[in-house]
Amino acid sequence: MLDLAKRVYDHSFRIDPIVRSLLDTDFYKLLMAQTILRRHPQVSATFGITNRTARVRIADEVDEGLLREQLDHARSLRLSKGEVTWLRGNVFRGQGRILGPEFVSWFENFRLPEYELATRDGQYELTFHGPWVETTMWEVPALAILNELRARSVLRGLGKLTLQVLYARAMTRVWEKIERLQRLPDLSIADFGTRRRHGFLWQDWCVQAMAEGLGEPRFLGTSNCLIAARREVEPVGTNAHELPMVYAALAPDDAALAHAPYAVLGDWQEDYAGNLRIVLPDTYGTTGFLANAPDWVADWTGIRIDSKDPIEGGEEAIRFWQDHGRDPRDKLAIFSDGLDIAEIERIHARFHGRMRIGYGWGTLLTNDFRGLMPDGRLDPISVVCKVMDANGHPTVKLSDNPTKAQGPSDEVARYRRVFGVGDQATMPVVV
Amino acid sequence: MLDLAKRVYDHSFRIDPIVRSLLDTDFYKLLMAQTILRRHPQVSATFGITNRTARVRIADEVDEGLLREQLDHARSLRLSKGEVTWLRGNVFRGQGRILGPEFVSWFENFRLPEYELATRDGQYELTFHGPWVETTMWEVPALAILNELRARSVLRGLGKLTLQVLYARAMTRVWEKIERLQRLPDLSIADFGTRRRHGFLWQDWCVQAMAEGLGEPRFLGTSNCLIAARREVEPVGTNAHELPMVYAALAPDDAALAHAPYAVLGDWQEDYAGNLRIVLPDTYGTTGFLANAPDWVADWTGIRIDSKDPIEGGEEAIRFWQDHGRDPRDKLAIFSDGLDIAEIERIHARFHGRMRIGYGWGTLLTNDFRGLMPDGRLDPISVVCKVMDANGHPTVKLSDNPTKAQGPSDEVARYRRVFGVGDQATMPVVV
């Protein structure tokens, strides 16, 4: 039956917006923003996009006008009343609001700040200058917009049935992965795929598939706040590299620099009253981080293993807890680096029963369109949005994988010295 | 946007009808009905359902009440004005109506006649008694209803995403077959899958996929009139076994019996003015039929190969044309028996360039859900609706495959003698 009102209303759309809500972002951005707002409201930080998949010339594929339209639309967004209610309603185990009133009222008035867009050598230079607490909020929507615009450009002009079969293939692929996941004992897995997703609706489908195919408690939830709210699953996440990177950039001397990663943890456990205690140890090398960690770091719930070979990283975590007299079986390792089903199975076979395991499954959950278009034109790319400087000081990341390192070379050298990072194994960055 | 009117209207549905139009049938039923109406309006005939896949107890799977509701709903259907217009508008190569005014005005007043339904040993005994021209019209809707009800019963209670993935898998499977078809030179293929389809909407999807994936002239059209009308593709079909079976049953003596299959062709070429001349030679054995055929049978456009091994049947057709001094490259062989992609490729490799080839692709186009549910519960079954008697005389079918033979054993013996049918190779009936 023709819904005349709908048809006429639809004609009034100026664009088909990719990001339609400020909640269409990862939960950990809000958690980090709350800490930034509380402790570092005056710090300014620049964020910038880097496409590590240099062979894909995004600026040739994605029209600049369309990109500006989408970014401008994202800047027009404000939280709705219902979204604020949802934010306030999230609590730790039934008590204690995760996001306090100061942060929520700041967020209620928030709009995404300005952006700068230039093109160089087939790539977009998209940068965000301003207060850290504001620029940090661009990371996820900027990446989601770029990735979805690229997919739209590749798919433009395909036939209706061809498109339907393309999605049928992608759905079948996701479901076959879920069927393999069903066989893993004591599985705990979450969607971490917002930033590199094929598109919002596709991520939303993937979350529903995980919810139906795995159910609770195996499917823990999603990092995407909007989808968590709509699908009534848990929003999940803790913190990311930008915290130690900015803390390090602001350190006045080498001693403060060496201490910076632990200072982050100290602030975090205070801000979240002992909740959300997942260590992300690899910003300046996991081995050194663990070797020099104060004993209380071993009290944290778990460790996220994000850039080292996961088997090596998992064994290292177990040794760390054992060395500190903790039982690894009480501890949680969260794997989140370029996961796909075979990798998850490999990790599970190795570690199940030896410690608690969680998976943060990103790009190859929400954007596994590999091979579904000729020449891999729909394959996901490794595009990131990272903090570049803080109060004018360049930021540095070493990671456990030199391919993911970032920063001016003299600063990288200094950080390697301060954190005692020697040779590292290079691993290809899948996504 | 909520379409209130639609929601309220939807609440008024009593059932979800499977057959929603008298055009939701195969084109050749109308062509045959026109000849029956013109030449044999007084002949009565009984049609009945047989499930050759005895291991599937349809009556245990499909509720009798639901079956009656669907059959009753089909009986309530009448042609709409637009459907009549479509029927009148079908012409041979731009001139000459395929369906004449007498038939169309009969069809405008037509309703499906009564049915008789009983259950025996886990199978439905569904029979239709009455004038041949009326009972013949039940074949396709009765089969489509049974098959779709079975699918609905198997799928009841599955989750939304599980269902979506099931269809995603089936779509991918169809599309991969179409991609293989794209590689066959001079392909000409049509959908013949109405009666054993998974469901109407699924057949409709398959036709759209064939149209988009192959296009004209490779995709010739569909046997389903309703889908042909809606999707603006050609309706295709000529005639079936029921014509020689009834002509044979009505033959007063052995001489008339031996002549019956050729009498059918004589009437047919008169009724269709030399169009639609595809011989279906296997009702009482292809070899004898061709050996005894008058020379003018070799003037017909082509032969449909429906129950013999297709390679053997194709070679036999070529020999027949050669023996009669016709060039097989001017002739058309239509393969229509249990086809699937590998079989089509095998036939094409053998005969391409040696004669014109057409494929009538049925069940494994519109109902290839094999293996998509545990225990093959969604696999297609070989259920048929055949004419059982004419004016009280039992009908007989021998076919080239004894598995498909039908009739009382004394009559079968008589027919075998009259048509000189010796030993035949038994082949499993796939679908």
TrEMBL record, chains A, B:
Annotated gene: pncB
Organism: Methylobacterium komagatae
Modifications the protein undergoes after translation, according to the UniProt entry: Transiently phosphorylated on a His residue during the reaction cycle. Phosphorylation strongly increases the affinity for substrates and increases the rate of nicotinate D-ribonucleotide production. Dephosphorylation regenerates the low-affinity form of the enzyme, leading to product release.
Residues annotated as domain Nicotinate/nicotinamide phosphoribosyltransferase: 188-422
Family: Belongs to the NAPRTase family.
GO molecular function terms attached to this record: glycosyltransferase activity; nicotinate phosphoribosyltransferase activity
Reaction catalyzed: 5-phospho-alpha-D-ribose 1-diphosphate + nicotinate + ATP + H2O = nicotinate beta-D-ribonucleotide + ADP + phosphate + diphosphate
Chain ranges of the Nicotinate phosphoribosyltransferase N-terminal domain: 23-147
EC number: 6.3.4.21
Domain of life (superkingdom): Bacteria
NCBIfam families named in the record: PRK05321.1
Function of the protein: Catalyzes the synthesis of beta-nicotinate D-ribonucleotide from nicotinate and 5-phospho-D-ribose 1-phosphate at the expense of ATP.
Name of the protein in its database record: Nicotinate phosphoribosyltransferase
UniProt-listed PANTHER family: NICOTINATE PHOSPHORIBOSYLTRANSFERASE
Keyword terms of this UniProt record: Glycosyltransferase, Ligase, Phosphoprotein, Pyridine nucleotide biosynthesis, Transferase
